Amino acid sequence: MSVDPSFGAKPVVVPDRELVQQLLDGMELKYAVDDDGDLTAPWEDFHTYFMFRGADDEQAFIVRTFYDRVYPIDEKPGLLEAVDDWNRNTLWPKVYTHTDDAGDVRLVGEAQMLIAHGVNLEQFLSSTVNWIRASI
């Protein structure tokens, strides 16, 4: 199958940290770079990370939000039921639980996009903005 180049498709870009920084600057959001080189944007009750993971054909851009609210371990079964319902009925962001060594349970939201072969710039920017808004 071939695609007519005059069809009007926009060129693709392979997003990087600098592009995400430009987007966050444009949204007037505060952010920092953590020890792993990921961008992190703090809010009052959560932190959102903007990460690039994978190599070659499997490189992905990930927006992951860690919510600060702590749940006791005995509430995890109820949380898992709620998270399963959310993930079943909602396209994104996907949500899961994280239990630390102390037994504290927190919720994490996540959205991903494969970027190794490039993506449409407008799609990347609008998806990232929507993922940020969904985290809030």
Strand-helix topology:
Layout: E1 12-13, H1 17-26, E2 32-33, E3 39-42, E4 46-53, E5 60-67, H2 76-89, E6 94-99, E7 105-114, E8 119-120, H3 121-135
Antiparallel strand pairs: 1-8, 2-3, 3-4, 4-5, 5-7, 6-7
Give your account of this protein's structure:
The protein is an alpha+beta fold and 136 residues long. It has one domain: Yope Regulator, Chain: A (2-Layer Sandwich), CATH 3.30.1460.70. It has helices at 17-26, 76-89, 121-135, and strands spanning 12-13, 32-33, 39-42, 46-53, 60-67, 94-99, 105-114, 119-120. It has a six-stranded antiparallel sheet. The chain has a two-stranded antiparallel sheet with strand order 1-8. The protein is globular and about 55 Å long. The relative contact order is 0.20. The mean pLDDT is 92.
Q: What does this entry show, briefly?
A:
This protein is an alpha+beta fold and 136 residues long. 29% of the residues lie in helices and 31% in strands.
What is the residue-averaged pLDDT?
A: 92
Sheet with the most strands: spatial strand order: 2-3-4-5-7-6
The top-level CATH class is: Alpha Beta
Q: Would you list the SSEs in sequence order as H and E?
A: EHEEEEHEEEH
The CATH topology = Yope Regulator, Chain: A
The helix content, as a percent range, equals 25-40%
